[in-house]
């Protein structure tokens, strides 16, 4: 069947995307189909709504302007835009039977905000656990707080390597094509009890459904479905790149990824970090990475070509925003330690960068106090 013209879904599918930034708008806009004005419903029966924050008024007024390398430029008008999670939860336009899928596409900052607690009013729980939570975030260990809070709901874990950014409020640019990897999450190891196995089975069914939505209805060619262990391997493998490049670019004085790998001492350091993640992942998941996942030397060689790439942590550091330190460094170190493996290099990066962030926050707060005092 042509991916251009899939038939409308028999039953309506209600998707709520929490976090209308680069990633949220990119995936939401691919799943959304134009509203048919006569029937007042989306042509494919897929309703995609957005929970915004600072960009709410512009998105509510004029939608999201998408500038994509792959699909061209277009305006995405969601089924509904909400200014906050409580507003979405209490809205009369929310689906009566709850959202089928809740995509979480905020930055993963568990040291600042508990995403699972935040989205709780949106999640239909109960024995049938109707709402499936889809996490499109970097790092490892992002699923566990959701699993604890929503023990019966299926979880889909997603890793994306799209490169996208919100260049101004309500304007999102996709710079590079994406590969999207999806898999279920029960307990991180594929379900060790009968209940866990059942959750993994339901998560796998949701995973396959979201892959179908993305590929046939969203035109995203390389969305791939994994089993639970396979998906965790993809997550740890992405951490291998993120945990090496992201903190090192900040701590090396603001160097881009390609620039770092051309420096012999930094290259050695990055390779050491990547090898450490390879070993840790084997301890945690019980098996080595499959051969198809690139080894450190190959990752370093391909990074040489990424001359305009600036790791997201560096961009966040430059703008004084919180960095995704816990999910990219803290969680891997802690999870590996629980399995008896000490990640010495990552632990060092984690301690240094966490301290740098704390010191900078304190000094910014002191400056603000001084300025306020001067004004009084
Ligand atoms: N961008 C990429 O190319 C890329 C690639 C791979 C993976 N990722 C990962 O994908 C995740 C999302 O990244 P991103 O680049 O899309 O970040 P982003 O552009 O900063 O988007 C996050 C959005 O979430 C919103 N938000 C945060 N808390 C919210 C809340 N409580 N209610 C409503 N909205 C809320 C933010 O609003 P405000 O603007 O008001 O803060 C922002 O619009 C991260 O884990 C990132 O590492 C990103």
Short descriptors:
376 residues, alpha/beta, Rossmann fold, N-(1-d-carboxylethyl)-l-norvaline Dehydrogenase, domain 2, eight-stranded mixed β-sheet, four-stranded mixed β-sheet, 14 strands, 45% helix, globular, binds NADP nicotinamide-adenine-dinucleotide phosphate
Question: Can you tell me about this structure?
Answer:
Helices cover 45% and strands 17% of the residues. With 376 residues, it is of the alpha/beta class. The protein has 2 domains: 13-226, NAD(P)-binding Rossmann-like Domain (Rossmann fold, 3-Layer(aba) Sandwich); 233-362, N-(1-d-carboxylethyl)-l-norvaline Dehydrogenase, domain 2 (Orthogonal Bundle), CATH 1.10.1040. The strands form 3 sheets. It has an 8-stranded mixed beta sheet with strand order 7-4-1-8-9-10-13-14, sandwiched between helices. It has a 4-stranded mixed beta sheet with strand order 6-5-12-11. Strand 9, helix 5 and strand 10 (155-160) form a beta-alpha-beta unit. The termini are far apart. NADP nicotinamide-adenine-dinucleotide phosphate is lined by residues 18-24, 51, 53-54, 85, 105-108, 118, 136-138, 160, 162-166, 312, 324. NADP nicotinamide-adenine-dinucleotide phosphate binds at residues 18-24, 51, 53-54, 85, 105-108, 118, 136-138, 160, 162-166, 312, 324.
């Amino acid at each position: 069947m042509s991916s251009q013209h899939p038939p409308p879904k028999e039953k309506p599918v209600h998707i709520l995307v929490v976090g209308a930034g680069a990633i949220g708008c990119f995936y939401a806009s691919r799943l959304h189909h134009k509203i048919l004005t006569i029937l007042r419903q989306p042509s494919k029966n897929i309703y995609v709504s957005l929970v915004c924050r600072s960009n709410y008024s512009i998105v509510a007024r004029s939608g999201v302007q998408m500038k994509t390398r792959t699909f061209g430029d277009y305006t995405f008008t969601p089924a509904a835009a909400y200014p906050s999670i409580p507003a979405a939860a209490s809205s009369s336009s929310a689906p009566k039977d709850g959202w089928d899928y809740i995509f979480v596409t905020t930055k993963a900052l568990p040291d600042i905000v508990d995403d699972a607690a935040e989205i709780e009013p949106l999640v239909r729980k109960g024995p049938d656990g109707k709402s499936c939570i889809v996490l499109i975030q970097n790092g490892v260990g992002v699923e566990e707080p959701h699993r604890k809070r929503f023990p019966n709901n299926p979880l889909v874990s997603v890793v994306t390597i799209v490169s996208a950014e919100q260049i101004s409020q309500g304007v999102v640019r996709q710079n590079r094509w994406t590969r999207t990897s999806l898999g279920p999450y029960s307990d991180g190891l594929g379900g060790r009890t009968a209940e866990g196995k059942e959750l993994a089975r339901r998560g796998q069914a949701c995973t396959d459904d979201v892959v179908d939505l993305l590929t046939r209805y969203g035109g995203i060619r390389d969305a791939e479905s994994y089993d639970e262990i396979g998906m965790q391997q993809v997550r740890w493998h992405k951490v291998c790149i993120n945990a090496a490049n992201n903190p090192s670019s900040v701590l090396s004085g603001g160097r881009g990824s390609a620039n770092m790998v051309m420096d012999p001492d930094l290259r050695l350091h990055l390779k050491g970090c990547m090898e450490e993640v390879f070993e840790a992942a084997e301890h945690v998941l019980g098996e080595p990475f499959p051969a198809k996942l690139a080894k450190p030397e190959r990752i370093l060689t391909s990074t040489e070509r990424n001359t305009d790439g600036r790791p997201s942590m560096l961009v966040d550091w430059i703008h004084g925003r919180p960095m995704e330190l816990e999910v990219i460094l803290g969680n891997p170190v802690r999870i590996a330690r629980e399995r008896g493996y000490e990640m010495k290099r990552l632990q060092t990066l984690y301690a240094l960068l966490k301290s740098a962030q704390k010191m900078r926050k304190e000094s910014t707060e002191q400056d603000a106090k001084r300025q306020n005092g001067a004004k009084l």
